[in-house]
Amino acid sequence: MNSPSAEQLLHQLEAFNQGDLLPIPEELRAKLFAAAKITCHKLETSADTVARVLISQPVEAISVRIAADLRLFSTLANKTLSLSELAKVVGAELDLLERVLRSLTAFGALTEVSPKRFTSSPTYALFQEPSFEAAFGTCQDILQKIRGSLPGYLASTGHRNPTDPTDTAAEGFTQLPEIYSVEDRLITGFDPETAMFVDVGGGLGQKAVALKKSLPHIPGRVIVQDTPAVIRHAPKGDPSYQDVELTAHDFLTPNPIKGARCYYIRQCLRNWPDKACVTILKHLKEAATPGYSRILIHEIIVPETEVGPWVVS
Fold first, then answer.
1. CA torsion sign, 143 to 148 to 151 to 156?
2. Which region holds residue 82: left if phi is over 0, alpha if psi is between -120 and 50, else beta?
3. Which of 82, 101, 164, 253 shows the greatest Cβ crowding within 10 Å of its Cβ?
């Protein structure tokens, strides 16, 4: 089959882009998308590449973040609003909002249907889900910290492939002290006769190790509980585990650590049916000391209505 000339390809693409994309099989859509990316890279000059990597991609991410913070995507979901109407709804200054909208339309995040009138973009449908839009900023902050630290971390290791789950570029981020006042709510008033921190279903103990690293002065015992099959794979000989106790425990049975200052359970309950969750929490309540112990549940909350795909995924 003869390849179309550049002029023929341009005419075909312009014709293809004239109207809305009609429903096509997913396999064909994926192939078209992959072929279009290859074509874009072939047409891109070295100057275009520098501009894309150094300028365009970061600006796009920042613009989308600002839009999510302003709740622009959910505000414009399935509706068209003018610049002035949008400014009133989101509470942004008109001139600044216009600059943000100009950037968003350039990247296809929004569509300007007529001068200074905007609507949502089908490719940003997921951002229109309130739950996803609200969570986007937190996710971006976490990922940017990790990405930003990665070059320096790899340089510090002599560019060796990371194999230690407790020593990575992500270590230390999104840890408990960032979302909960450990100093005020746990350390203050701590009884040294009790355990400080019990990570229930804590896997290989990454969160407990990170807690000790971020707060080396934290008093009391720091304990990780999980099934024997999980605990046996923890790198017990690693120096970072020196002050962390690894204990085999089934959280569907009574917790042997009584009266701890904090029982912490993260992203475990969502994997169990309601009846099992009640059992897990009942055992933690029975182990806790009223008025002293804290039970911290670190989970994604699925709303009763208007659930977005981001949350259920």
1. negative
2. beta
3. 101
Structure tokens at 115: 């001068």
With beta carbons less than 8 A apart as the criterion, state whether 228 and 248 touch. yes
Amino acid letter for position 194: T
User: Which two structure tokens, joined as six digits, stand for 114?
Assistant: 């007529």
With contact defined as beta carbons under 8 Å apart, do 222 and 243 qualify? yes
221 Cβ contact list (under 8 Å, min separation 6): 195, 196, 197, 245
Give backbone dihedrals phi and psi of 298, rounded to 5 degrees, phi first.
-105, 95
Please tell me the distance from the alpha carbon of residue 203 to that of residue 206, in angstroms, as a whole number. 8
AA identity, residue 237: G
Q: Give kind and range of the element (H or E) at residue 110.
A: strand 110-114
Q: How many residues in total does the chain contain?
A: 313
How does pLDDT run along the chain (313 residues), one tens digit per residue?
678 899 999 998 888 888 777 788 989 988 998 899 999 999 999 999 999 999 999 999 999 999 999 999 999 998 999 999 999 999 999 999 999 999 999 999 999 999 999 999 999 999 998 888 988 888 888 788 878 888 998 899 899 887 765 567 765 555 677 778 899 999 999 999 999 999 999 998 888 988 988 899 999 999 999 999 999 888 877 888 888 999 999 999 999 999 999 999 998 998 899 999 999 999 999 999 999 999 999 887 776 766 655 565 5
